[in-house]
User: Fold this.
Amino acid sequence: MQAEALKGIIAYPVTPFLPDGSDLDEAAFRAVIAALLASEPAAIAILGSAGESAYLRDEEWQRGVEIGVEAVAGAVPLIVGIGELTTAAAVAKARFAEVAGADMLMVIPVSYWKLTDAEIVEHFAAIASATALPIMVYNNPATSGVDMNPALLVRLVREFATVRLVKESSGDINRMHAIRELSEGTIPFYNGANHLALEALAAGASGWCTAAPNLLGGEPGRLVDLMAAGDLEEARTLFYAMLPLLRFIVQGGLPTTVKAGLRLKGLEAGDPRKPLLPLSGEPLEQLRRLIG
Amino acid sequence: MQAEALKGIIAYPVTPFLPDGSDLDEAAFRAVIAALLASEPAAIAILGSAGESAYLRDEEWQRGVEIGVEAVAGAVPLIVGIGELTTAAAVAKARFAEVAGADMLMVIPVSYWKLTDAEIVEHFAAIASATALPIMVYNNPATSGVDMNPALLVRLVREFATVRLVKESSGDINRMHAIRELSEGTIPFYNGANHLALEALAAGASGWCTAAPNLLGGEPGRLVDLMAAGDLEEARTLFYAMLPLLRFIVQGGLPTTVKAGLRLKGLEAGDPRKPLLPLSGEPLEQLRRLIG
Amino acid sequence: MQAEALKGIIAYPVTPFLPDGSDLDEAAFRAVIAALLASEPAAIAILGSAGESAYLRDEEWQRGVEIGVEAVAGAVPLIVGIGELTTAAAVAKARFAEVAGADMLMVIPVSYWKLTDAEIVEHFAAIASATALPIMVYNNPATSGVDMNPALLVRLVREFATVRLVKESSGDINRMHAIRELSEGTIPFYNGANHLALEALAAGASGWCTAAPNLLGGEPGRLVDLMAAGDLEEARTLFYAMLPLLRFIVQGGLPTTVKAGLRLKGLEAGDPRKPLLPLSGEPLEQLRRLIG
Amino acid sequence: MQAEALKGIIAYPVTPFLPDGSDLDEAAFRAVIAALLASEPAAIAILGSAGESAYLRDEEWQRGVEIGVEAVAGAVPLIVGIGELTTAAAVAKARFAEVAGADMLMVIPVSYWKLTDAEIVEHFAAIASATALPIMVYNNPATSGVDMNPALLVRLVREFATVRLVKESSGDINRMHAIRELSEGTIPFYNGANHLALEALAAGASGWCTAAPNLLGGEPGRLVDLMAAGDLEEARTLFYAMLPLLRFIVQGGLPTTVKAGLRLKGLEAGDPRKPLLPLSGEPLEQLRRLIG
Assistant:
């Protein structure tokens, strides 16, 4: 695929578990993906942060990839998230995803001990040389513990032919400015911070990586379209209308809040995996009001 | 004046000193203001952060107000900055500015010891009851040591009839979101963070408070116009063209960098007051390249 | 064992891998533990942060526990680290450690998505009800992404009979003050921040959890003894003599720096697991000078 | 005086105002100083952070110096605080203090615009060349907005013959480690963070700069003595007994809380200057309980 040509919404399904939490709920996963496809995203990205990939056993992760490939069925590009502590595990998963039929990888390094730039570069080198799939490098320090600054992100794209896109979720709009400036506008960047959706598009983001379509359907996509059309007034109105929900789902943790929201909307996607607990009490009522 | 109707660029002159640093350079101050007026701002705000008001003796400050009133001469509204550690000094300056002919006050509380919300509210109460001038409440924690969160800013506007506008310079776009949400869009807010000019306008800012017109003339105003017209593509191009200079003048301190830039452009506005030192060496060369 | 009676040094071995990185180097692991025992610690804690437990496959982790039990052989209490993203995995490892013969568990919650206090409490509840072993609750936000404040740490000790000790590695001495105050001096706390060793002992820490004995032998223990004896002058001299090395091994990441240091001292413990890279270049020379 | 020989408590009086806030309360100021002298400090430092020097008019400040000289009357060394935004004002005050009979200056640079190292060095150069008094360089970023790192503090002592001591109030114990290491133990440093008093003495501080003797009399001095005698157990007990009050007076702002405490103890020292408000309500009750 032409990774750089991707524009618009990249939608992130949650990963449903069976009621006892013991395994994936395959039927529910297919249903979640089908609902996302109905929102007409530019691509679907499975097993990312919202997809609780960090909490899956290896065999569950693999089964998740297979279901994703079947459920998306070529309707849009399928991106698979790779977030592993060890390089060996990341390489193994990247290879599995390629063989299973993924179209692209979204790779986020994860730390226990802080990584140097050299360590991050070698991590990407190992993955890039193990598969031919295009790679989106994903920065999300709040979840992964690794903060790749714009210079490093640009370096990764320049150094590895298959690393083509950046997803920036630090929530700092200056990072997007820097990526654009350092790459002289040549490297496409996606925004992964829901509460900055409006501003990131103003700043030139190619699109928005988000789990919001699980709850908001095609509205996030409409924001992208309005901004592309220069209808700033209408875009701003739509953004502020969505903002309380966007902020809520991020602050409460995407798996927790999106699964709760799907249940409220009648699509049973189960609970997050422990220690994550299902939303309850006042926050659940708040979400009910936000979803309306 | 109708404070809420103000839109667009509020331009900030630097305050020139004589070569020996002993006093204001009145002629240079008039020249700086005249040059700013030529950039066609919506208003001129003297004796703000860029205007080194914190470094002036009382009599210099008063003379500065008088010169400002004469030099602006009603061409656009004249705003006077009030940033004092004690409430008594702030009240005295507010009264002086009103008598001297200012159209509006921009008030920033300044701390040595951190202020509670109650202390900040009483500070504004004292100023608001001492003059009839409309007030713009100004938040700039990096310089003043006081961080007023959006709830407090909104409270100040609601509580005091003459507090009408907010200037937000924290550099956190979420603050602007919150002001709009908490006030249901009724409180006009201005952006004071140069490097966020594009995004703040996208987020609904009424305008941009900036010293950049000292060096960039009417270009900042053109950004506002392009955004108002929905020409996002052109606005973005203009913003990124200005961004290296905008970032430079903030990071190096506005009095230091803007005075150096004015000298490079042929308008001698002197040096900042000690301990601030004039720009020199490599940073000066960098500025020369940025100004082109 | 009487967990609360524990005082002094809890020593942390690194976990050696074979030269090709594919598996544990069991002989080297035994040698590392034997060397630590020679430094006469109060206890040995295997598979902690320094022990790269986050980077081990399940079967490696289990084998590590078995080797630890054999190698320590009752000479001192054996503590096993449990740091898992899912509660299910933490419970399974806790049970394994108990059956294998561990004397105590050191439990650190690890996050991808931030955990609420309720989620952390349930995580400990599940572990505490799955084993009879005493538990040391371990706070290390920089590595785990979870920051448990003193009130929560004290709550965990009060709420679960087998949670007996706190290890505080945030590096904020105020946390230790708060634990002592909130528990009225009844909850023993250990310091896990090497660069605060002197001050933590002054503040009343029961001891020091550290990988430093791998490189410094009995010197860390001597610091504890000097402070217990009130020989503050000598303790301070010793602390400042060790400080450059203590700071170095933390800043460079304990597995990376301690393994490099062991090699310099002639005990081959291999390299850390990728993406962690072995120390090289100038940092390695710096370590060589520090070890002298 | 032999500045380096100073050891123990440097006590900070508050600066009382008349009931209407219009001017200094000279009699109360003398009473506050007399009470401090009764606590037997090593030195008295007037017009520091606790002394609200930032809120004084110039003539009040000068009168404050004169009263201090008279009231201390050579009983112990008298230190005068200099914290000014402009170098010219700092120099003028330094000269005034010398002529008036001060024994030492405590100099803190204050910022509106951030200062570069070069600007800070020139600021000290101007002051050091304007008076012969020994100088204590004072770092307190939370109040002054200027953060001088240990390397800069050490540089100032090395570069200017009369800059002899460091007062470190950042609250980061690592800064004290670094000062000791960078100066190879040759530069005496004082701790200015009340809540770190125990640990700073452990780390080798020459003493403790504090307003606490206003409320605690000789107890802070006893902590210093116990640590000097190596009675760590008793020192720790005393420190934890004082800690709730120490933390309270810092968190609520020293002028506000110490003045309230003096009133509770029967020494009327008035209220802080607006916008600072007198302590009231629940915080005042809390202080009453802490003072007992």
